[in-house]
Specification:
Layout lengths: L4 H9 L2 H6 L1 H9 L7 H11 L1 H11 L6 H15 L5 H20 L4 H11 L2 H4 L10 H8 L2 H10 L4 H6 L1 H6 L4 H4 L5 H27 L1 H21 L5 H12 L6 H6 L17 H24 L1 H4 L1 H24 L2 H17 L23 H10 L4 H16 L15 H4 L2 H16 L3 H4 L26 H5 L19 H14 L8 E3 L3 H7 L6 E3 L16 H4 L23 H11 L5 E6 L8 E6 L2 H9 L3 H8 L2 H5 L5 H11 L5 H7 L2 H10 L1 H11 L4 E5 L7 H9 L6 H8 L10 H8 L5
Antiparallel strand pairs: 1-2, 3-4, 4-5
Helix pairs in contact: 3-21, 4-17, 5-16, 6-7, 7-8, 7-10, 7-15, 7-16, 7-17, 8-41, 10-11, 11-15, 15-16, 15-17, 15-19, 15-21, 16-17, 16-24, 17-21, 19-21, 19-23, 19-42, 21-22, 21-26, 23-26, 24-29, 30-42, 32-33, 34-39, 36-37, 36-38, 36-39, 37-39, 38-39, 38-41, 39-41
The structure holds a DNA duplex (12 and 13 nucleotides).
DNA sequence: GAGTTTGAAACT
DNA sequence: CAGTTTCAAACTC
């Protein structure tokens, strides 16, 4: 391979020389699908995506949220960006990750390390690899943030031995810049895993890119299309947008786990990725986590193979990567549904899909320019990303749009969903994941009439959308496509649709208006609140997830898809105002109330508040013992997010929620103990607040929990799954104990490279801890 | 496929 | 902020 040149150089420098010399290596090189590119050509490609090109954009994207610190970090990354010709894929990956992380940081400055580390610690790493992650590793986060880190990591991970890896990940190598490896503790296993993953991703992406690029035009186009959106994000973070991103998008598809969900999410369909304002917060995390996890798993393997010196073969990559990719893609799609079950089928399908490229079939008329590329299904994740991206000014976006007519059209592999592999649909609900899955479904489904197709939804509504709007012109939230941030496409049966690339400005402006009214309007409907791993692993129910606003069902008993909570596969929460809730995923009914009442009645000093979590899966009983009534209340408040739900029933909060998210926060805090309120209030950043919203009171509670441990002792139910207070400390994140941590979690899904540890665990292995 | 039901979104 | 209307999905037949 041509590209190998660089790697080679690196390799030569390192120890790889031997490797290169190997006949196999040579053979591979010769075989490499990638045409020995004219340097220029490659360069050209690269440039398209390069951050430098995008730079302006990035600046644009720079969200207020972003912290200077981030920026600085980003800056670092930028440099690297330039490099890689081939880098496309790999870089993109990195950037994304880095970006995601950065975003998190920016939002949660305080907790940056924590959040990040948490991910890491949790990170999938563990599962696949024995490696225990040391949460302590602050550097890691940094590294990731650094962006380039990935490769670096790889190097590190690989350790010196991995020089080969460097080769393998030439692009990354390019990036090397940094702090890199050296700084990193190569020793840490956790890291290694990530690194590997990263490498793989990059590699895969790399390879994938090649493949896609070479093999399937569609993919390429898609990727290209995708690129812009990503770019925006990445730019925000790094300023390095790369074609890579696009690649990554493809990669995502590849990833069994959807490692790339991030990208994918962004990509695809979301024309307006960035549109959402910072307030929107990052939804991405949600998606990502799952994805990451998955990725991790799959990646690990891949990584291992790759990382291993023997395996390295940069060249092999093509073969391996392709192979791997195939699997990954499958996974991604499969995941979506949470359809663990389906996965197998899909995998097979995926193959076909690969050729075709997974997409929602939507081809908008507009998109016709690219017949194949139909607008992407809305990725569930996408929504998240969009939100995350939100910072991007429309203006900027518009340009894309203009371009995008082509771009947008692109269908991105919806990649994504990270649904927790966990298999259960419930879990699947996780925002993005499902959506992604849907996309695939769409393909199959498209054939089917619109009727049933509807959304393949995630709860988020992120899934591939197909609307049938008649009066809204697809410019209102009524329109699922619009709501999901995707253009209407062929499958849609809408009338008078203005949600088309050709009307990008209109769409954006409308979107903006809506966001101005409700910053969370485009946020995923279902947000994963707690760490996925914990709950998911334990339960089927996505206890961690909840509907951002809660439902208001009165007749459906939250047992039908009319209920957004149900639809999203999440239990009802405090924020819900439903009546007669029978949500299979968890009710918000009133155990809490009882406990409260009891407490108030003063009947108790030692009141055991028993919460029965309705979540079907669990039937968990959580018993809180309060020393006194007051404590009882506390208990109510303190419980983990999950617990919170039922508790949430508290009238005040439940009564009505302000439309604006922020208000909700206030409620929650109030509900919570008087003890901590200030703390939460004070601390809450918009973002946090958002988290709270998502979490519901829980977040605040959690925070409080830290402060008010006293309140309760909890006994675990037979199932023992939840012990709220303890959880706070442990569950949420051992590492970060303060409330902030929770916040981070809420964010979680950030594409933590690691992915959620939790999620990873469920299927593959036991949780790291 | 048409009609009804439902609840979110939008409006007042 | 509360109530009403509009809307489109979900559902039923």
């Amino acid at each position: 391979m041509d590209t190998p040149d660089r790697p080679r150089a690196a390799a030569t420098n390192a120890a790889a020389a031997g490797f290169e010399d190997s006949p196999v290596f040579n053979f591979i090189n010769n075989l490499s699908p990638i045409p020995p590119p004219k340097p220029q050509a490659s360069a050209h490609n690269v440039q398209l995506f390069k951050s430098s090109d995008l730079a302006p954009v990035s600046s644009i994207f720079a969200s207020p949220h972003v912290n200077p610190a981030k920026e600085s970090k980003l800056v670092v990354r930028d440099d690297p960006v330039q490099l890689p010709q081939d880098s496309n894929s790999p870089n993109s990956v990195r950037t994304r990750l880095g970006t995601a992380i950065r975003l998190i940081k920016s939002k949660n400055i305080v907790s940056e390390n924590c959040s990040f580390t948490c991910h890491l610690s949790q990170a999938p790493i563990d599962s696949s690899i024995n490696t225990s992650i040391s949460t302590s590793n602050l550097p890691q986060p940094i590294q990731f943030v650094g962006g380039s880190a990935e490769c670096d990591k790889n190097q590190n991970a690989g350790g010196d031995k991995d020089l080969s890896t460097d080769q393998e990940c030439p692009v990354e190598g390019v990036f090397f810049d940094h702090t890199g490896i050296d700084k990193m503790d190569s020793s840490q296993p956790g890291r290694i895993v990530h690194e590997n993953q990263l490498c793989e991703q990059s590699r895969d992406g790399f390879v994938a890119y090649d493949e896609d690029y070479l093999a399937t035009e569609e993919l390429n186009s898609d990727m290209l299309r995708l690129a812009p959106p990503f770019d925006a994000e990445t730019q925000l973070m790094n300023g390095t947008l790369n074609a890579d991103n696009a690649h990554s998008g493809t990669l995502l598809t590849d990833g069994s786990s959807g490692s790339y969900i991030n990208n994918a999410a962004h990509d695809p369909h979301l024309y307006w990725d960035g549109a959402v304002d910072g307030s929107a917060m990052d939804y991405t995390p949600q998606l990502l986590p799952g994805v990451c996890q998955n990725q991790l798993v799959s990646n690990d393997q891949l990584c291992n193979a790759l990382t291993e010196p023997s395996n390295h073969m940069p060249m092999d990559q093509s073969a391996l990567s392709q192979h791997m990719r195939g699997t990954r893609r499958r996974c991604l799609f499969n995941e979506k549904a949470g359809a663990v079950n389906k996965a197998a089928k899909k995998t097979s399908d995926r193959h076909s899909a690969n050729t075709t490229t997974p997409r929602c079939k939507t081809s908008s008329s507009d998109h016709n320019s690219k017949p194949m590329k139909t607008p992407p299904c809305a990725l569930p994740g996408i929504g998240l990303h969009l939100n995350a991206l939100a910072t991007i000014p429309k203006d900027k976006i518009v340009p894309y749009a203009a371009q995008s007519s082509t771009i947008q059209a692109s269908n991105f592999p919806s990649a994504v969903s990270s649904s927790p592999a966990t298999s259960e649909p419930n879990t699947a609900n996780e925002d993005s994941s499902q959506a992604i899955v849907v996309a695939n479904a769409d393909e199959s489904g498209q054939g089917s009439p619109k009727k049933k197709r509807h959304k393949f939804d995630n709860g988020d509504g992120t899934s591939c959308k197909r609307c049938s709007c008649k009066k809204s012109k697809c410019l209102k939230l009524y329109c699922e496509c619009f709501h999901a941030g995707v253009f209407c496409s062929e499958p849609c049966s809408c009338q008078g649709c203005l949600n088309k690339p050709s009307n990008m400005e209109t769409v954006l402006s409308t979107r903006e208006q809506i966001e101005s009214r409700n910053p969370l309007a485009f946020a995923p409907k279902v947000i994963r609140t707690s760490e996925p791993g914990q709950e998911l692993g334990s339960n089927k129910t996505p206890a961690s997830a909840r509907h951002k606003r809660g439902c208001n069902c009165k007749k459906s008993s939250c047992l039908k898809k009319y209920c957004e909570c149900f639809q999203g596969g999440v239990g009802c929460s405090i924020s819900c105002r439903c009546e007669g809730c029978k949500n299979a995923f968890g009710r918000r009914e009133g155990v809490v109330l009882l406990s409260i009442e009891q407490a108030k009645q003063g009947s108790v000093e030692n009141i055991a508040c028993v919460k029965e979590e309705t979540s079907e899966n669990d039937n968990q009983l959580v018993i809180y013992q309060a020393a006194n009534p007051a404590s009882a209340e506390n208990v109510l408040t303190t419980p983990s997010v999950e617990d919170i739900r039922p508790l949430s029933a508290l009238p005040p909060s439940s009564s009505k929620r302000p439309r604006s998210s922020t208000k909700l926060i206030g409620h929650s805090s109030r509900l919570c103990n008087s003890q901590a309120p200030l703390k939460t209030d004070i601390l809450l950043s918009p973002f946090e607040s958002y988290a709270e919203m998502v979490l519901g009171d829980g977040a605040s509670d959690v925070l409080k929990g830290g402060s008010s441990p006293q309140t309760s002792v909890k006994v675990v139910s037979p199932n023992k799954k939840r012990i709220s207070p303890p959880r706070i400390g442990t569950g949420l994140s051992p590492i970060c104990k303060n409330g902030r941590k929770l916040i981070l979690k809420s964010i979680p899904s950030f594409p933590s490279l690691c992915g959620d540890v939790n999620k990873v665990d469920p299927k593959t292995s036991s949780p790291a801890s």
